[in-house]
Amino acid sequence: MSKTKVKINYSAIGAMLKSGDVTRVCIQAAEERAARAPHTHVDTAVLNTRGRAGIVQEMTRDDMDNETLRKAMG
């Protein structure tokens, strides 16, 4: 069996994680899940190392009792 060496281009991976394409995929996935839970909106940011999207829920008592955001995540 031969040994295969892989050289990782860390700067290219970092650029990819900060790219608009990856950020758009994250935003799209967050919006799809946020649409399934009440009282939610998507929070996005491009940080030093990557783009991110998060779901923020303004919780009501019903949301807390029924765990609506957790259930919406699938």
Query: Strand content of the residues, in percent?
Result: 15-25%
Fraction of residues in helices? 40-55%
Quaternary assembly = single chain
Structural class, from secondary structure content? alpha+beta
- What's the total count of β strands? 2
**Mean pLDDT score, rounded?**
86
Low-confidence stretches: none
Basic shape: elongated
Total domains, how many? 1
Instruction: State Rg.
Output: 18 Å
- Span of the ends, CA to CA: 42 Å
The run of helices and strands is: HHEEHH
Which strand order do you get reading across the main beta sheet?
A: 1-2
Largest sheet: 2 strands, antiparallel
> What's the number of helices?
4
Fold and architecture overview:
The chain has one domain. 47% of the residues lie in helices and 19% in strands. The protein has 4 helices and 2 strands; from the N terminus they run ααββαα. A hairpin with a 4-residue loop joins strand 1 (40-46) and strand 2. It is elongated and about 60 Å long. The mean pLDDT is 86.
How would you summarize the topology of this molecule?
Blueprint: H1 10-18, H2 20-34, E1 40-46, E2 51-57, H3 61-66, H4 68-72
Antiparallel strand pairs: 1-2
